[in-house]
Amino acid sequence: MSTAAAARITGLETYDVRFPTSRELDGSDAMNPDPDYSAAYLVLRTDAGDGLEGHGFTFTIGRGNDVQVAAIEALRPYVLGRPVAELCADPASLSRALVGDSQLRWLGPEKGVMHMAVGAVLNAVWDLAAKRAGLPLWRLLAQAEPEWLVSQVDFRYLSDALTPERALELLRKGRPGARERTAELLRTGYPAYTTSPGWLGYDDAKLTRLAQQAVADGFTQIKLKVGADLADDVRRLRTARAAVGPGVRIAIDANQRWDVAQAVEWTNALAEFDPYWIEEPTSPDDVLGHAAVRRAVAPVRVATGEHVHNRIVFKQLLQAGAIDVLQLDAARVGGVNENLAILLLAAEFGVPVCPHAGGVGLCELVQHLSMFDYVALSGTVEDRTIEYVDHLHQHFTDPVVIADGHYTAPTSPGFSATVHRTSIDTYRYPHGTYWAEELNT
After folding, report:
1. Contact by Cβ (8 Å): 44, 72
2. pTM over 0.85
3. Do residues 275 and 251 lie in contact, with contact meaning Cβ atoms separated by under 8 Å?
4. What is the required cofactor set for this protein (predicted)?
5. What DSSP string describes 314-331?
6. Would you state the CATH architecture of domain 4-135?
7. Could you list the mean pLDDT of each consecutive 10-residue stretch along the chain, which spans 441 residues?
8. CB of 227 within 8 A of CB of 254?
9. Whole-angstrom Cα distance, residue 250 to residue 275?
10. What's the chain's Rg over C-alpha atoms?
11. N- to C-terminal Cα separation, the chain
């Protein structure tokens, strides 16, 4: 066992964890009819003797875990043996190493399965760093010096839109009032909206019941999946609007189902129900397509981001005036480091961030990023809200808590990423107790 000062990373363990959400059609949408919400999960262990571990994961919807876990395993040599104190003091040093491996980079670069693996490992490092600091991640970031935060961001490919000097200016501008915003956040939480009523596989009775319950629980916005059948969508939007009344926002989400022209036609056909935004109306890679949709469906807003590969595509969406709402994802890009870049880009362009959180553990992670943004960068929650989906939180040791339609600010040290060992033992694929029984029947 090493002293704390000499401690090193001694282990990186991976787990393929899959939850059978397809059985109840939880998570179902026009593009993904039968998802099993899953986590390619990892644990970083050290010889510090303090019992602290770094936990991280990336989200898939089932069989993709086979590939995703293998990608995380490929990064093991870059992590083992690193000094813990140095790594936690400068996660960007690992980010540069992981992104810079030329042979692995060829698989992206900085996109897809390999980049998601990089993000999972980096998020585990940030979890460990926050635990060692005794702070929830949002407070670790909010209390950090602006110069250090800028040092954690890779500005390569961004400098035509955002320079390090401008990022530092934005962060310094965000510091005044941070103490008061922290107190307000701890009192009232961060606004949430819920997708729980809106899964495409739910019948109208379940949609109505869950929508009405959402309003009773304090949510002022819900979201419905659309895009499989226009007549069904008209009926479902009419049902939802009747259930929640005119004063509650209803967002709609097509999950990339449409071509540009179809997105315009379909969204305008649903405009009578006053949708707040249309999410992922077309391919997440089609920057100019999103811009065209935005021009044609206003005043309905255009939102996207959960499948955007990296900071560079977000930069282009913002430069092209293609989105009204930026939906970053905590586990799609290169971890906290790249999400800092994306938050800074959104602040520079004045576009509100409403993160994606539909998936196992994404609510737990992304709340920290939005809360940092409120306290130390944008300074506002106006037109900002975090997605909330009401399932699988019981598997986490520090699950999200929703009160009166708001995320309660986490107070436990870390990134809220730790899954109960019993949940891993039950849902680890294919040998966990649930899957062993399921696959043998």
Report:
1. no
2. yes
3. yes
4. Mg(2+)
5. HHHHHHTT--SEE---TT
6. 2-Layer Sandwich (3.30)
7. 80 97 64 80 97 97 96 98 98 97 95 98 98 98 98 98 98 98 98 94 94 97 96 97 97 97 98 98 98 98 98 98 98 98 98 95 98 98 96 96 98 98 98 93 76
8. yes
9. 5
10. 21
11. 45
Largest CA distance in the chain: 66
Q: How far apart are CA 39 and CA 57, in angstroms?
A: 6
79-81-84-87 Cα dihedral, nearest 10 degrees: -40
Look-up: residue for tokens 């992206």? 108
φ, ψ for residue 20, nearest 5 deg = -80, 60
- Run of H or E including 412: none
pLDDT at position 133: 98
* Angle at which helices 112-133 and 335-349 cross, to 10°: 100
User: What are the structure tokens assigned to 321, written together?
Assistant: 């005036």
In sequence order, the 6+-apart residues with CB closer than 8 A to the CB of 266 are: 226, 227, 230, 233, 254, 258
What is the DSSP pairing of strand 406-407 with strand 402-403? Answer: antiparallel
Known catalytic residues?
A: 225, 356
For residue 404, the model assigns a pLDDT of: 98
Fill in the amino acid letter for 153.
V
- Domain ranges for the chain: 4-135, 178-424
Check residue 34 and give its pLDDT.
Answer: 72
Q: Which CATH class is domain 178-424?
A: alpha beta
384 within 8 A of 191, measured Cβ to Cβ: yes
In angstroms, rounded to a whole number, what is the distance separating the alpha carbons of residues 108 and 334?
Answer: 12
Q: Is the peptide bond before 430 cis (omega within 30 degrees of 0)?
A: yes
Residue 212 token pair:
């009405």
| pLDDT reported for residue 5 | 78
* Structural contact between residues 37 and 19, judged by C-beta atoms closer than 8 angstroms: yes
Confirm if 41 and 15 have CB atoms less than 8 A apart.
yes
- Coil, strand, or helix at residue 116? helix
DSSP single-letter state for residue 101? -
Q: Quick one: three-class SS letters along 233-244?
A: HHHHHHHHHHHH
CA distance 72 to 14: 8
Q: Which pLDDT score is estimated for 391?
A: 86
258/265 Cα distance (integer angstroms): 10
What whole-number distance in Å separates Cα of residue 100 and Cα of residue 105? 7
What's the rounded Cα separation, in Å, for the pair 149 and 343? 12
164-173 and 335-349 helices cross at what angle (nearest 10)?
80
